[in-house]
Amino acid sequence: MQHKIPRTITTILIFGRPPLAFLGMVLAIATILTMNPLYYIMGVTSLCLSVVIDLIDGWFAARFAPHYKLTHITERMMNKIVFAINFPVISVGMMWRFHFVSNTNSRAELLHVVFVLILCVTVLLRENFAHFMKSFAMKKGAEEELSDINRLRTLFAAPVAAILYAHAFYTLEGPPSSIYFWISWLSNIPLRFLYFMEITFFVINLGSIAAYCRRYGSDCLDDICMDDDYLRWRILSVFPNALTMMNAMMGILSIFFAYGGRIREAYMILIGAAIFDRLDGAVARKLGVTEPPRDNIDSRVPTLGGILDDIADAVSFCIAPALIFYCLFDSCHMTVIQDLPYGWLAMIYTIMGIIRLIYFTLDRHPIPGFFKGLPTPAAALLLTVPLIMFQYAQDYGGGNEALFWGYFCFGLIVIIPVLMNAYFIHYIHVGRFGGRHPLFTKIMFLLNGISVFTPYFGHFNLGLHLVYLFSPIFTWRINPEIAVIESKTMNTNMGHSSSIPKQL
């Protein structure tokens, strides 16, 4: 008798979320049709209740259900149903708010609507991809394994959905109640915090896809390739090439954000492009797909990965920063700034950056662990970050402050193309340096994450980039054989590259 109540409660908790999600969808439709704030309040309340249930159902089932494994499978199925309902509804709600509720209809809000659509599609794609990977692995007798990134994704999904729902279906006028006051506060969170939350959730979903590839990829390839090494190489090459394409997409997305006047977000997205640029090469080396199998090598034909990498770097680190610089300077109302030849300098920056990429590709005597000249990702970030302060000074600061940052940015776009092509100056590979100093990397990411919520985000990052700009004064003494080392794990994998293609 004492187990009946816990079992009943567990059943209600596990199977209760889909009805709440469906109720939220019905109330969202009612809100769209009637603009009644009562339906809006009830819809947000239903999703908030779903968040509470999502946080406690696993804990309750683990302690009271007699068949935890079956309970876990059922809970995962309920997650899929809830995601399939909530995120398409949120995407529709964002479009509805932009057209019928928003008073400004600004380009920044339009970009936010587009980004939420991309996020919702990514969430649903991840669900189908995870099912596809596990279906292959289960045929091979693989056991299901929950990774930390998947747990983090499940923990993030429900709160993110509730906050975006409250933002999407906000009605301008509501009853004078404390409930509506708190809900309306949620719906009016500044865009920069929404972007931070959404970008974090987007990255978590990409990390979850990578975790499934690492866990179940080998079993899938064994079933598909049947000992065909060249086919295996072609399939494995998709993963670093996909990261390269993400690099290019980040560059294009940063241009759209800059066009919408969101320089801060454009810079953050360029950081993501630099991370993907770092990851594609590391993943290619780890998977052993930097070159095709020896029987299929033709040195006269460039590989698809090399072509994509050059195109992605040109878009993200040559074209995008120049366009961001041009958009901000072109929208400036200060006469002294308008008289500067910023259009020509933006074009020169793009051309010099592409020349730098061509030299990097054709260089037959690279220095291990170092770049000859300022690398294009560092140059792009260094050029973009002071534009954050320039835009802020134009909007909220005084004329002298805006003039200072305008001349500062103008000076950088003159100096940076020269440094990119000053091949006698050697810059250490910061990614490999971070691989050898993981604690330093974690501290920098933590401090950078904290600075996002302060007015000094741009100043902090500008300081980091200036340190790297003058780093050759101190790093020229480092032995290249030491600089090329990334970490003990990566070094071990590189030493056993012949076995890597069998392991995704």
Structure description:
The chain has 504 residues and is mostly helical. It has a domain at 245-504. 78% of the residues lie in helices and 1% in strands. The protein contains 20 helices and 2 strands. Helix 2 (37-64) runs antiparallel to helix 5, helix 5 packs across helix 7 (191-225) and helix 8 (229-259) packs antiparallel against helix 9. The longest helix has 35 residues, at 191-225. It is globular, with a radius of gyration of 26 Å. The two termini are 49 Å apart. Residues 488-504 have low confidence and may be disordered.
**Largest pleated sheet:** 2 strands, antiparallel
Mean pLDDT: 80
- Helicity, as a percent range: over 70%
**Could you list the spans in which at least 5 consecutive residues all have pLDDT below 50?**
488-504
Radius of gyration: 26 Å
| Distance, first to last CA | 49 Å
The proportion of strand residues reads under 5%
Structural class: mainly alpha
Strand order of the largest sheet: 1-2
Note the overall shape. globular
- Count of beta strands: 2
Please report the number of helical segments. Answer: 20
Order of helices and strands: HHHHHHHHHHHHEHHEHHHHHH
Oligomerization status of the protein chains:
single chain
